[in-house]
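Sample intake sheet
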Amino acid sequence: MDSLPPINQRVKRLINHYSNGVVRVFAEQLENVSQQTLNRLFNIDTRTKKYPIPTTDILVAITNMFVDVNPRWLLNGIGEMLVTPNELDKINANTPNDDIQKSGVSALKNANSDTPTFDKFDTPTDTPTHNTAAANHNFGAPKVIAISENNEDLVTLVGAKAAAGYLNGYGDPEYIEHLPTLRLPNLKSGTHRAFEISGNSMQPTIQNGSIAVGRWVESLEDIRDRRIYILVTKNDGIVIKRVINKVKEAGKLILISDNSNKIDHYTYPVEASDVLEAWYLRGALIFNFQEPGELYGRFNDLEAKVTLMAEQLQNLSK
């Protein structure tokens, strides 16, 4: 029997690293890659009697999602599994013909240009101005990030009451310092921030009062269609929407609500120059659970009755 191919072993190692070995959790973070597709990599195909090799789509999805994965290591086992942003730039510069295309590196901080500050808030030295960011649709690194005494990034929480002040204070270390912080598992790639959601525009996906956790987006051009993003905008404040990216064509993002009531929660465009920050939704803490609809309740009642009938029939047959 064939042993698990080295490239499959490397994918399995990434699953262990990012998702504690849970294939389902790992698959949910990838674009267009199902849990079943990943499971096949670790089971011998009964027809070929061999393990399936990961497709290019799988490898690209992994490197797009986990931006610190070394593409050379993933493809050929060369080098370290994870690399720093500076190391990744060198790798990409030296491997122009790599099959895996990197979408960009979300650096937490540049260790070569900025000295870490413990129990403080780290401000990158080369932060682009608002005008530069708007013109190039490129934000660079976050203006302020929170780090622990162990030099680990913390997730700053922007509550609903703090949302208005955040528009003015998101680049102010003193303002960010007074916001609470969270420690969340499985957020090992990129810089994250949490926002308390106010409103029903994203129901049933995200409930009013939920805490949405987003990963920093370096450039508006990295935004992918129909994914959910938390946007900090000049005119509309902090909004969470599905986004259609029309930055290259029209200099706009199209914002879509999940709520089926399109009269109150309509689709609308926002100018790219109006966006101050963008965070890709990675998870949410939900506290307000909706009651199931009437049809769902009737189905559950019917299912319960059928279960009891089956049990009674089974007892009669004994």
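Comment: The two ends are 45 Å apart (CA to CA). The first helix runs from residue 6 to 19.
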